[in-house]
Amino acid sequence: MRMKNIILITDSSVYEHRADQLFLHFRDRGFNVKVYTTDFDHMQKVKRQNVNPEYTVIHGIPYMKNISYARIRYHQKFAKDALKAIEDENADLIWVLVPSNSLTKTISKYKASHPDTKLVFDVIDMWPETMPSRKLKKLPFVNKIWAGIRNKNISNADLVITECDLYQSILKDFVDEGKMKTLYLARKSYEIKTVPNPPEDRFSLCYLGSINNIIDIPTICRIISELKAIKPVDLHIIGEGENKDLFLEEARNAGANVIYHGKVYDTDKKQEIFDSCHFGINIMKEEVFIGLTMKSMDYLAGGLPIINNIKGDTWKFIEDNKIGVNYSGTISQEQLDSVIRSNVRPFFDKILSEERFGEALDTILLSCICQE
Q: Is a pLDDT exceeding 60 seen at residue 364?
């Protein structure tokens, strides 16, 4: 199949970075690319002011609470509007970012009426599996209906992309494993001037990112306490969120000297903080189903080893490459000593850089989509 026209669809500003990478990659290779996105900012809950002018905007119904009927209506309406918007498009390939799960249902209808168009579902998050509430995930609507929308329709795609191998452990029950490929999230491979200089008389840790309800504050504090039994602990915090005050208080109670930086956008300043630390904290609640976090990618891009409890891909990365410590209840000096800091940035460049993303995407297209 010789492709010319490609459509990308995402209903989330949170995941648009993935659409941005795909858009630039396809455009640079001479394809006609059209991106359909939302005008709603899911983080700030306001209308977006900075949408890429090259993208086509679909209006989203505002909502205020992440778990609400209003949010369900948002996703359902966007999915219907997206289907209507592309009905008359002459697309050779439609690439849909999932979530939302509703998009798998509506865009499957397009595929049914346009069988020659190739369809890709790109699963970059698992709803409801990544939700931190075990009780909520047991509710029939959440566990069967919400997940069921995705599971019933995902096999309609010609190819299912997952942003980590871990997601395939669930999706394999609903789609042929031969139709699934992993395409890792990626970060721009910027040149860093890194001169690691963590203190010798104390442990220096960094937490980067949103301080929200999916990070595991008690486990982070337990790690702080265990390390403090060996020598004093500094904790640098970069970010904000609804649990900021709780996190700062609990970290201090655990014995850490907390240095709060707020949001840091300057790359050199963030690198300076990374260089002053021994490890980045990549600790989330056990019930969160995720194989690779955005924060861990930032640490690795900055050459900073991580203390991690994320199972699946990240856990294996650390085991195989000695780029951090996997935490399963205790932390030992032997684990700390096994880390090879000089391995961290080369690992990122090899697996998680935009250059590697482009190479992997080209391979997927040639082997799975563009076959004659």
A: yes
CA distance 12 to 41: 8
Decide if 364 contacts 159 (C-beta within 8 A).
yes
Tell me the β-bridge partners of 56.
36
Q: What is the pTM of this model?
A: 0.92
Q: Which helix (H) or strand (E) holds 296?
A: helix 294-301
Surface-to-core class of residue 208, CB atoms within 10 Å of its CB (0-12 exposed, 13-18 middle, 19+ buried): buried
Nearest to 7 by CA among 91, 69, 64: 91
At 191-234, the pLDDT tens digits run: 878 899 999 999 999 999 999 989 999 999 999 999 999 999 99
User: If we measure between CA atoms, which residue out of 273, 282, 354 comes closest to residue 323?
Assistant: 282
**Long-range Cβ pairs for the range 59-63 (8 Å, 24+):** 60/11
The CA distances from residue 75 to 100, 129, 143, 182, 242, in Å, are 6, 17, 17, 25, 24
Say how far apart CA 13 and CA 35 lie, in whole Å: 13
Whether 292 and 308 have beta carbons less than 8 Å apart is answered as: no
